[in-house]
Amino acid sequence: MLMVRKSADRGHADHGWLRSNHSFSFAGYYDPRFMGWGNLRVINEDRVAAGKGFGTHGHRDMEIISYVLDGNLAHKDSMGHIEGLPPGDVQRMSAGTGVEHSEFNHADQETHFLQIWIEPDKKGIAPSYAQKTFADADKRGQLRLVVSPDGADGSISMNADARMYAGLLDGQDEASVALSPGRKSYVYVVRGDVSVNDTALHTGDAAYLDQETSVRLAQARDAEVLVFDLAA
């Protein structure tokens, strides 16, 4: 089974300093049909105005991933991390028993990034943080594992039964991920055009897959794609 959700059908919020597209119910956007997919709970496409950002706030028991597309985020948290996140960087926070953090755009241009939440395997663990750069060269023409339960292949480890792949595909590039029985998958097109299991998708579109044996990407045009292998 493959279901497509078009970019324009997502939830939208405009707070002036922040413009967001919500793939799943979040904050003031609620749709009981879109509460998550497997253990994937949130994908917010956020655009933060220059000189603005998310003030200090808290989370518990959630795996939170930031994937920066354009601009730069300044991260600060209660674990003592003070980091900058440029494009190509992936950040993972395991909120566990509780963490407070802020994310600001101190630059003079808009910052564009994805905020992703995945439900954890274990609750009440100690909070932790990881950040890593994944160069475009490592993603070009293939799907690069960037986050996983065990840190396989140089990916960032997390406390969740999920794998997140990132790829840059164009022209004759093809890539695939095999899915074990009982798994779900979610494909999000960050930008460009790509065919997912012979179904055409465009910027901001997503594909929900269930009872499929693989995710197959082809017929790409300047595409950046995220693929999630998820617990059902």
From TrEMBL:
Alphabetic keyword roster: Iron, Metal-binding
UniProt cofactor(s): Fe cation
CDD domains: cupin_Yhhw_C, cupin_Yhhw_N
Domain Pirin N-terminal: 9-118
InterPro entries, per the entry: Pirin, Pirin_N_dom, Quercetinase_C, RmlC-like_jellyroll, RmlC_Cupin_sf
Keyword Methyltransferase: no
Any Pfam family the entry gives: Pirin
Keyword Metal-binding in annotation: yes
Positions of the Quercetin 2,3-dioxygenase C-terminal cupin domain: 145-230
GO MF terms held by the record: metal ion binding
Cofactor stoichiometry and binding remark: Binds 1 Fe cation per subunit.
Residues annotated to bind Fe cation: H57, H59, H101, E103
Family stated for the protein in its record: Belongs to the pirin family.
Protein name: Pirin family protein
Source organism (scientific name): Comamonas piscis
